């Protein structure tokens, strides 16, 4: 399902740490995102989007699959006042083939390999790939931990 959804509907990240612009496609096992690399990005050095930026872009792309469980009901209605915290618990078989430049728009795709759902947390493993057009930039497996937190807003 091609949808073009703003990633901010799924993740708590905001500038300057937001490394994804749009979700192009998402379901329970797959996500595809795009990201335009701008000159003022914190992971740009000498007009090159560095390795840490590619990894963060990949992690945020993967998080969209897991986090959507907390932000949206099965029927698509949005849950209000939901907060999540997440982090990378492991990177496996990381290969960075090339680094994009400012002005490039990268596409990142992730497939769910495995998932464990607890009461208020989810652990998952995703197989990932970042591309610039048809050129592979990054390949890896990433383990994520996402936990629902209590909202302190009253």
Task: Give an overview of the whole structure.
The structure is a single chain. Helices cover about 15% and strands about 50% of the residues. Strands 1-2-3-7-8-9-6 form a 7-stranded antiparallel beta sheet, covered by helices on one side. A two-stranded antiparallel ribbon has the order 4-5. It is globular, with a radius of gyration of 15 Å. With about 150 residues, the protein is mostly beta strands. It is built from 1 helix and 9 strands.
Keywords for this entry:
154 residues; mainly beta; two-stranded antiparallel sheet; ABC transporter permease; HotDog_dom_sf; ApeP-like_dehydratase
Order of helices and strands: EEEEEHEEEE
Secondary structure tally: strands: 9
Number of individual domains:
1
- The coarse silhouette is globular
According to CATH, what is the class?
Answer: Alpha Beta
Strand % is over 45%
| Rg from Cα | 15 Å
Category by helix and strand content: mainly beta
Quick structural summary:
With 154 residues, the chain is mostly beta strands. Helices cover 14% and strands 49% of the residues. This is ABC transporter permease.
Topology (elements, then pairings):
Blueprint: E1 2-6, E2 22-26, E3 30-36, E4 44-45, E5 48-49, H1 51-71, E6 83-96, E7 105-117, E8 121-132, E9 135-149
Protein name: ABC transporter permease
InterPro entries: ApeP-like_dehydratase (IPR016776), HotDog_dom_sf (IPR029069)
